[in-house]
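Risk register update: the risk of archive-format incompatibility is retired. Evidence:
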Amino acid sequence: MRSDISSTSPADRSDGTTAPFTVPLTLCSLPTGGGYKLGIKVAFNFLPLYMTWRLFELDTGGTGFWSAYNSGWWPQVPLPPQLQLAYIAYASGNEYWGQLTQVGLYFEGQQAFTSLVNVSQIQIAGGPKLADWQCNVCNDIPPLDGNFYGDFGADMNTDATTGLQSVLLQIANGFIVHLGSYPTTPGEQVSASLQIGLSSADISGAPNQLVLTSGEKGLTPTGVLYINHHPVTIVPLMPVAVLFDTGTPSMHIWTGSLLSQDLLFKAAGIVSRSATGQLPDGVQVTLFCDGVTVLDFTAGSQPGLNQVSYAPVKADPSSSDEAVGYVNTGLTPFFDRSIMFSPNTPTPFISVFQSSATR
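Archived output:
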């Protein structure tokens, strides 16, 4: 899609957000499990001589910017008078405990830093994949997935306890993720960029609007998933929340009371009935949101391209609501497309710019 403004530095607009500008993204291979994630390069507002660039995971399924903490990277960022701690847990099992602070950010290719934004300095990291977190940080080794120094969360939600939210929500009225085709060979360079801020032409030119409503995963569109293991019988699963998540390598179905495992197993022809697993090769997967075909492919074993896993949803212990289940698209629908996130329009929406490529 067109991007009619690409400034060299963030410029304030009358509504307090920045005029649209574009920064490069990096498609990173994961060291275990296969697949890819997107990285965004960020530096904090130190004197240029001491500026330290770090690559962070661009995560449209995570809330808030969580950065590894090393005193050498944060020498001029004062902590607030009253310490405020924050906590986040991810579906992957990763957990962070952090200290909230404010800092200006530089994005790669820009000539000015943003206004002060709220971020969290990770003090403690937990989870089976992060046992060497502190050792890696001290030795300047990316502690997250072998590529990243933290999670640049970019979902549409605000943490109810701390008020922490995406940096992009703090400085812009929306954003667009542009990603090239799925790599055909290891190490292949793939074009990727992030437009921060939306022009009026971007919003009015959106080809569709997947309306955001409050549900299982905060503000997300609602979709209907079709699973078919037979050329005639197509079984639609109940309408559920759809999380467009660049922080998950592949599509994942979280089953619950509405998106039930029994129905999924029947639709996919799964006999083994293990609570966790992957859809068999050859199963047809189609996902519709507001009449838009978001995904339509045959399941296989390539992460990010056609692999689909499933597991029971993890219930929120602080909520009495029954977990109904939801679909996490993973990075799959982002390949060879542009996807716009517009949370500040009168009717918040996501727009999917369709690709001519087939999966």
